[in-house]
Each structure stands twice: as structure tokens, then as C-alpha cells.
Amino acid sequence: MELIACAAKALELIYREQYAYKKAGILVSAIVHQDYIQTDLFAMNERMREADRKAMAVLDRLNQRMGRDTVKVAAMGFDRSWLMRQERKSKCPTTRWGI
Predict the structure, then answer these.
(1) Proportion of the chain above pLDDT 70, given as a percent
(2) Which member of 5, 48, 65, 70 has the lowest number of beta carbons within 10 Å of its beta carbon?
(3) Is the Cβ–Cβ distance between 3 and 28 less than 8 Å?
(4) What range(s) does the DUF4113 domain occupy (predicted)?
(5) How far is 54 from 58, CA to CA, in rounded Å?
């Protein structure tokens, strides 16, 4: 949830109505276990972080039990009229590049 909040705040700063935009995805790498986060002076306190962890755990359990995207963060939006084009997607995108 922290990542979504930061992305939404950044978008508010850079968005300009007169420009045409295209949908894009973000690939996040170098993700570490939540217990190994190196915090700084301005980081959330542990109680806030624990509340976020619990909320995400509940959200994940509901989606596992009830189906994908049954419950989601409001920042994800509600419009699912677009779908990623998959007709040329590799069957094994990370292991067999020649396919």
C-alpha cells in the first residue's frame, strides 16, 4: 500500500491535462522481506507498518478465497475495460527466450 500511495502522489505532481498518455506497467525488483527493511528518519513507525501488513494480509486472503481482484485497493481503479494484449506473449517469458 505504501508503493501505491507514493505512486499516486508522484502522479499528482507530474500529471498535465494537455498531454496524451499511454497505459504502462511497472516492474518492481529488489524486493526484500518486510523484516529486513532499512528505515530512515522519515519512515513510518512500526505500528503503522504493522497495520498495513495486517490489512494487506486480509486483502490477500479474501482474494485467494473469493477470486482475483474481489477486493482491491481503491487506487487500482474500477475500469477493467482494457486488457493487456497477449496474442504474442511467450509461453515461458523468463526461462525460454527462443519461443
Answers:
(1) 88
(2) 65
(3) yes
(4) 54-97
(5) 6
